[in-house]
Write a structure and sequence with these properties.
Length: about 350
């Protein structure tokens, strides 16, 4: 039976760290305006600082929409960086004179995604975002090719461009919380359950699912997938305590699910392929941040190299990343800032 609170089905939410299950889904044509209103409704200097940074992110986003591809990565990156600073500010981080947290060795920029390297630093804005998401904060280098391969919003473009690469992301649906059907309500537990697209729902795919996920075949119902670990749901316990436990559970397993922004929830799980050396364990937001910084460096310091990329077979993939990566990032970080599911009412419009 699906878990419901006040007759509302509890679903997996976009935010990783502090999902607000008391909020209704926000339907807005303007993600930037909703977050701006939310920040202004809060009290304290950190929200005022964040509001200014968010406004800057919005202006850089608007500029990006008007610029040609040769200049767009620069303003897109600054939109992403300032939006991240807004999140860090409300988390109590000092974002004054903070470094970018990412670099690309300029003397070695070749404009080839198989060769160019992006360094995730141990300090700075990107490191702060990694800390927020529970990622590694150790200084680490990544190949651009691997970062793009592990990014859901351009994965189809990537695997078409490089058709020898295995698909990583499996589409899933109906990602809800379900209750164990026990007569004793004091012993009931909840877990995340989901259905898998019929194209992938087979033994071969199940071999590559994360060890926290299991296949369930009820005797009197259709099969589905679920998180093995469960959380206690005793209806005699105060609802505040139950929801607090649910948020902690959500935070622990949210990183097993990925989504692509749009007017509906498009969820995915990622294959575990130990022999595939190109798989990396990074969140979509930190990947987008790093790759957009690399492109902004090319645009600023090596425009001829950027031009060579756009004249190569990588052209479509890079265009897809620039066009889809920025709105994907803003969508995700908006939910992290507010704790809400912010959805588009049927069509895309961010500003």
């Amino acid at each position: 039976m699906l878990l419901k609170v006040e007759n509302k089905t509890i679903k997996l939410m976009k935010p990783h760290i502090a999902p607000q299950y008391g909020y209704r889904t926000v339907l807005s044509n303007s993600t930037f305006e909703y977050v701006s209103l939310w920040l202004r409704s809060q009290t304290g200097k950190k929200y005022k600082d964040a509001s200014f940074l968010w406004k800057q992110a919005k202006y850089f986003y608007e500029a990006s929409l008007k610029l040609p591809i040769e200049a767009k990565p620069l303003t897109a990156y600054y939109s992403i960086m300032n939006a991240t600073k807004a999140l860090l500010a409300i988390k109590g981080k000092n974002v004054v004179k903070i470094g970018h947290g990412v670099s690309s060795p300029r003397q070695n920029l070749r404009g080839n995604i198989r060769q160019d390297i992006i360094i995730f630093g141990a300090t700075g804005v990107l490191c702060g975002l990694s800390e927020h998401l529970g990622e590694s904060m150790v200084k680490q280098s990544y190949c651009v090719f691997d970062l793009l391969y592990n990014l859901p919003c351009v994965h189809r473009a990537f695997t078409i461009t490089y058709n020898d690469m295995t698909e990583l992301f499996i589409p899933v649906s109906n990602v809800n919380f379900e209750l164990t059907n026990l007569a004793d309500v004091t012993r009931r537990k909840a877990y995340i359950r989901f259905d898998m697209d019929s194209k992938y729902d087979n033994y071969h795919t199940r071999r590559y699912l994360d060890h926290n996920i299991e296949y369930a075949q009820p005797p009197n119902g259709p099969s589905f997938y679920r998180i093995k670990k469960r959380v206690r749901w005793n209806i005699h316990t105060p609802i505040k305590d139950r929801m607090s436990d649910l948020v902690k559970y959500h935070r622990k397993y949210r990183n097993l699910f990925y989504y692509i922004q749009g007017s509906s929830m498009l969820w995915y799980v990622k294959k575990v392929l130990p022999a595939n050396a190109h798989i990396i364990d990074r969140h979509s937001m930190t990947i987008i941040y790093g790759v957009m910084h690399w492109l902004s460096e090319l645009v600023r310091y090596s425009p001829d190299t950027f031009n060579s990329i756009m004249s190569s077979r990588q052209n479509w993939l890079i265009r897809e990343f620039i066009d889809l990566g920025l709105p994907q990032f803003i969508d995700e970080i908006s939910s992290e800032i507010t704790g809400a599911n912010i959805m588009l009412p049927g069509y895309r419009k961010y500003i």
